[in-house]
Amino acid sequence: MTETPPLDAASSNRSENKSNSTMCPDLNDWWEIVYYLVPKYIDTVCIIGMLGNILVLFTYSLHKCPLKIAEIYLMNLAAADLIFLMCLPFWTENIRNKFNWPFGNFLCRSTSTSIRLNVYASIYLLVAVSVDRYLTFVHTLNHREIRSKTMAKGICLLTWFFGIFLSVPTFMFRTVKHFPLWNISACTLDFPTPLWITAERLVFNTVGFMLPSTAIIFLNFSTISSLRKKARVRRALGTESLKERNSRKATTLIFAVILMFLLCWTPYQFFVFLDILYQTEVINGCFWGELLNFGEQFGYTLATTNSCINPVIYVFVGKSFRQKALEVFSQFIPCGFPLRWVSFKEKSSYFNGLTVRSSLT
């Protein structure tokens, strides 16, 4: 019988329990595929994601116009994704090394904590931007005083502190532990009792995903419903302003970001939920143990995609972002350099604007 390697404390317990009970099929060939393919995929995600999120941060930081409220949240989201992506190369090497952690205890703790922080910060930033869109379109007149840039920055700061607080158990209990069964030293969550394992997974699954996801879905469905009603009325009256159209386009961008986050992270969180059932012995046996080992690996690999896909969404969905990026990077691009990735309409509107501004100075 070949045992699966410990991805974390929960999966190591699964394998140890399994080895003490029944003989399970040899899946060593499947793990060899994981060791070969997953690092290559995550390396690709890292390269694309780092370049993309640096582009986002660079654009929002250097653009001459002050950030809008939604952009404050999206900039913080890009920062969280960049931190996450900077930690992934350590884990790709860990997978290549068949989960034998080669980087020592400090990097085990710090990278694991940073990754967990990204999950909490990202989803609660999406809650915050969903609330902002909800107040903008559903309760337009009642909460204008709440929607300010200072408030948005304060919410972002609180979100980071909240994420750090929820990541403390990861920092405390992540350690490099030797597993004689596999003859490796793995970076794993080493909780004092099995109850801690279940509690941590439960918090991660509920506070880190289910509750905020429920809020996000409710807020965005309410916003979409309100937008549709207002759009029908304004089309009938022909009274939609340019500002309202731009705000609606920004909302479309945010909807796309939220949708991709949920699509990328839901499979992993589903397997985390199944793992809670496994830890509490609601489900058991070789089938579930192997399914969870491979399922969590697949789910986490898919989840990493989210951190590189947001910049792609900004470029292809966010016309305002493309315009800002063009304005920022045109300062560094030689005159006459072809900008084929921007539509002719956007280029002409930008360079016409340059002509007007230069004539006024």
Automatic annotation (TrEMBL):
One of its GO terms (molecular function) is bradykinin receptor activity. The keyword Amino-acid biosynthesis does not apply. One of its GO terms (cellular component) is external side of plasma membrane. The keyword Ribonucleoprotein does not apply. InterPro entries: Brdyknn_1_rcpt, Brdyknn_rcpt, CCR1-9-like, GPCR_Rhodpsn, GPCR_Rhodpsn_7TM. The chain crosses the membrane at residues 41-60, 72-91, 117-135, 155-173, 202-224, 253-278, 298-317. PANTHER family: B2 BRADYKININ RECEPTOR, CELL ADHESION MOLECULE. This is B1 bradykinin receptor.
